[in-house]
Design brief:
The chain has 4 helices and 9 strands, in the order αβαββββββαββα. With 183 residues, it is of the alpha+beta class. The chain has one domain. The protein has a 5-stranded antiparallel β-sheet with strand order 1-3-4-5-6. The protein has a 4-stranded antiparallel β-sheet with strand order 2-7-8-9, with helices on one face. Strand 3 and strand 4 form a beta hairpin. The longest helix is centred in the N-terminal third of the chain and has 55 residues. It comes from uncultured Phycisphaerae bacterium.
């Protein structure tokens, strides 16, 4: 084997090793993105499931904002960044968006708790309805017919698993009707 053949073999080997290195690097990056998206999806789904469960099983739902609450009571569909309701023990429960800290909060009688971090946007669209008693007496819109929740989250330093690209954004939405208003 001559020097020319040896140099050709060496350049082919170097090209193959370089291509393999690029392929392995791409696989590792894809794995990191996939892991980041999976963790983000899991956390967002837990937050959305908790909110929809509470809306489904509680009573006396209303927007968190007082102005929107008045519009809701007059029969208008409203969109707010918070939702208030009463649980089975008549404790006030609120979900609200803290835009400055990019957190979704749940406010209970025991305090304010963080439900999700890295929240880019959060909205609840509430459609009112009238109870049977309200219809009979000519009263106002006193029940929630449907709430549609939209939650957009992004990975942050505190929410990312291990090394992160930090560029993953995920939007989830869910629509829910309180059970006691369905019957």
């Amino acid at each position: 084997m001559g020097l020319v053949e040896l140099l050709i073999a060496l350049s082919i080997t170097a090209s193959l090793l370089t291509a393999t290195a690029f392929a392995v690097d791409a696989a590792f990056r894809a794995y990191a993105v996939n892991q980041e998206q999976a963790v983000l999806l899991s956390k967002a789904r837990v937050a959305l499931a908790l909110m929809t469960t509470h809306v489904r099983t509680t009573k006396l739902h209303a927007p968190d904002d007082a102005t929107l609450r008045a519009q809701f009571a007059s029969g208008q569909t409203v969109t707010d960044t918070g939702l208030a309701m009463y649980d089975a023990d008549d404790n006030l429960l609120r979900f609200r968006y803290d835009a400055a800290a990019k957190r979704l909060l749940v406010v209970t009688p025991t305090g304010t708790h963080t439900l999700a971090r890295g929240v880019e946007s959060f909205s609840v669209t509430m459609e009112p309805m009238r109870s049977a008693a309200s219809v009979r007496t000519g009263g106002g819109w006193d029940l929630l017919k449907r709430a549609t929740i939209q939650l957009t989250v992004r990975t942050t330093g505190s929410t990312a698993p291990g090394e992160s690209t930090g560029n993953q954004t995920l939007t989830l939405s869910g629509s829910v009707m309180p059970r006691r208003n369905a019957w």
